[in-house]
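Handout, tutorial session.
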Amino acid sequence: MSLATTPLPRRLLSLTPALPVMAVPALLALPRTPDGAGPADVLSGLVVVYCVIRLLRERRRPLSPVAAVVLGLPVVGLALAAMGAFSAEAGLTGLGRYLQTFVLVPAAVLLLLRDRSGFRLVAWSFVGLGLCQGAVGVHQFVTRTGASYQGANIRAVGTFGPQDVMGMATAVSLGLVCAVGIALGRVSVRQRIAGAGCALVLMLPLALSFSRGAWIATALTCTVQLVLTGWRRALKVAAAAVASGVILVGGFGVGSALLQQRIDSIAQVADTPDQSVVDRYTLWASATDIWRGHPLTGVGLKGFPEYRDGHATLALSSGSETDGAGVAYQRQPLLSPHNMYLLVLSEQGLIGLLALAGSWLALLVCGVRRLLRVRDRGPGLDCGLVACGLLIWLLTDFAYGDIGGPSTVLIAVGIGLVAWWALAGDARADVAGLPRAGVRERAEEAMAR
């Protein structure tokens, strides 16, 4: 009787604050603007304002003490690095970007999501974005209208363009991680089947992105997600995924030669690396040398490009070449070390790295602890797998890339999902064997069907 009357309006009411958050990934499906902030960036700022207005109207406490400490920890290093920037404009620009990505947007997502239904809504928006960008990317490969790769315009970049070749790879990878988490969780059968199907479909555009870092991060993350659900189930799903990959790539010949060459290059980085790998190693060494000269507070936000040439060797090229996908040929300067940890270390020093990495580590520990607590009988296993998967993917990918471009706002929303799972989200109802939690979860599953 209660399911037929009161829960539905209450359920819809609880989903309302999640709708603006869900719209942020949706706007990333639009073609990017040539300059300035894109619509998703603008909406992320409006989401923060909307969150503040709701807090004032409802007179709610903004954050718990633990959440305030964990999410506010990066501010320490950012403030010091902003004051040490080579110009006030660079300091303010860098400070705003970091605060948006790692503090403000995640905090807003944490406060706006009211229950697991809202979480799942945002997670499905990640999957939808991945499918949309992946469809564009596959079309680019088939019609040879993508970004230039080894002399042919076949690299799938979606709507992000050749200037941001990691944009589509990030969107597809995070969508795949969310789909795998949903497929492995205890949600309705239809959602599990849909999640598994979407994950298999997203494997193709991820392969055609030719992004080695995204491949490694996604493979590692999905492996961890599978292991967290049990070894027997992990082996079955892994076998199905390998078989699907063989059919998509080998059976249909979808860029098999180029993919094999790209995969082989991962193992050849210490033998005969290509120029992109040489540039990356040189940038890493340059960032390390910069940090040695400014160990505690770094050279300031946006300072790496100013100090790069003074510490780089002659092996570093003048820039990366971009072409195709509707954009004329140009050379892009290498303005970051393509490693988030080394970027923070060089610009924010040990203080900044410890503060930012400490926040991530706290989220990881809290998230995994809660996931293990609900794995056997508690509710929300799919949410835990999605949240922990997103954070593991980001921490792995940060070893090969850093923030920048339109996809950065997607990272911010992803960290918000992680924060909700780790620091809030019906944690008291997660104790195994609590009857009320089991009833509520079964009611949610029945309504989802």
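The second record follows below. Compare its token runs with those of the first.
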Amino acid sequence: MANVSLDFQFTSSINKVWNALTDSDTLAKWIMENNFKPVVGHKCQFRNPQWNLVVDCEVLVVDEPNTLSYTWVGGPIDTIVTWTLREEDGTTYLHLEQTGFEKEDQAFNGAKYGWANMVEELKKVLA
């Protein structure tokens, strides 16, 4: 098994970053169109019509503002995404763990590259 593990830092408050991870309208600005709700058991989709991509999700963990976890299933990918947040000295640390990849293949590398790019968009949204 292979896991994507990425760390990011923001000068925004932990609550502002949490909101960007859990508010459907804000998520649409940096990930994809969606019908996400931060409610355990909620089933939703992230959609990118441009790429003909639909990702099915089910919310697994909501521990505001520290942990958010959901399934991420689309195409060859059947994984779990977990965001972990902590705030220290005015900096919010955001850790992304995407687990369940069979190996470090195209899907794994695509996810790693994709999340890094999307978080760059998130930085703009938070600015």
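Points raised in discussion: The chain has three helices and seven strands.
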